[in-house]
Amino acid sequence: MLRNAGCFALVCAAMLIGACNNAKSPSTVAKDVDSASQSALKDTAKAEDKAADKVASAETNEQHVAAAQEENVAKTDAEGDRKVALAKCESLSGDQQRSCKDHANAAYDQAVAEAKQDRASTDPKQR
Predict the structure, then answer these.
(1) Dihedral sign from CA coordinates of 78, 83, 86, 88
(2) By CB count within 10 A, which of 13, 59, 64, 71 is most buried?
(3) What is the three-class DSSP state of 24?
(4) Residue 71 sits in which domain range?
(5) Is residue 98, in this structure, part of any structural domain at all?
(6) Cα 3 from Cα 74, distance rounded (Å)
(7) Distance separating alpha carbons of residues 119 and 112, to the nearest angstrom
(8) Within a domain: residue 5?
(9) What value, to the nearest 5°, has the Cα angle with vertex 12 and ends 8 and 13?
(10) What's this model's pTM, rounded to 2 decimal places?
């Protein structure tokens, strides 16, 4: 019985080894090549789509950061202008000084509002 099992195993092994080196028919090879080509095309298309998505995401992030920084610069510039204007207001007194400060603060508020509006129109993450 052990001898029959050993023989069976040898016959199976010989068949497997022999099958490894057998050439396939041209139609089978053509079919396998076509299948592999289609699979490769699909994989390439998926990779290209994924790469395009990553590039688009990176561009969106870059635009977002640029818009945020431009807003920060505009706000900082407006704050500097306000400080200078308020310092100049100190040379005045009474109602003139109050009016001068009100004007400086209004100009600052307007500049900040414009900076926010500019960001809203250029920041893809705020659209």
Answers:
(1) negative
(2) 71
(3) coil
(4) 60-126
(5) yes
(6) 91
(7) 11
(8) no
(9) 115
(10) 0.63
